[in-house]
Amino acid sequence: MSADGDWQMVPVDGAPRIGVQLAPDHTPPQWPDGPSQQQVHLDLWVEDFAEAHEEVMALGATVLKAAAGHPFCLCWLVPRRG
């Protein structure tokens, strides 16, 4: 990940693939029916769900609904065989 001031950029194979910007007055969305609308949805593919869940919770994530992970989801990555 590379940083430039209030921007964070995630490169893949040397090219930027996703960027996020600091929003000091941000009001988090309250999915699915809150007053602030969801602006983006991320699927984050992980190999170890339990470890990833623990990490994002430690970073401040909250579970909004057990059966639906908006505004972002941790998705199980099944490694290819052979």
Can you describe this structure in just a few lines?
The chain is mainly beta and 82 residues long. It contains 1 helix and 5 strands. It has a domain at 28-82.
Question: Could you characterize what this model shows?
Answer:
With 82 residues, this protein is mainly beta. It has a domain at 28-82. Helices cover 12% and strands 32% of the residues. It has one helix at 49-58; strands spanning 2-4, 7-12, 15-21, 42-46, 72-76. It has a three-stranded antiparallel β-sheet with strand order 1-2-3, with no helix packed on it. It has a two-stranded parallel sheet with strand order 4-5. The mean pLDDT is 76.
Structural class: mainly beta
Radius of gyration: 15 Å
Give the overall form. Answer: globular
- Order of strands across the widest beta sheet? 1-2-3
Number of alpha- plus pi-helical segments: 1
End-to-end separation in angstroms reads 30 Å
Order of helices and strands: EEEEHE
Low-confidence stretches: none
Average pLDDT, to the nearest integer? 76
Biggest sheet, open or closed, and with what strands and sense?
3 strands, antiparallel
The count of strands amounts to 5
* DSSP helix fraction: 10-25%
Q: How large is the share of residues in beta strands?
A: 25-35%
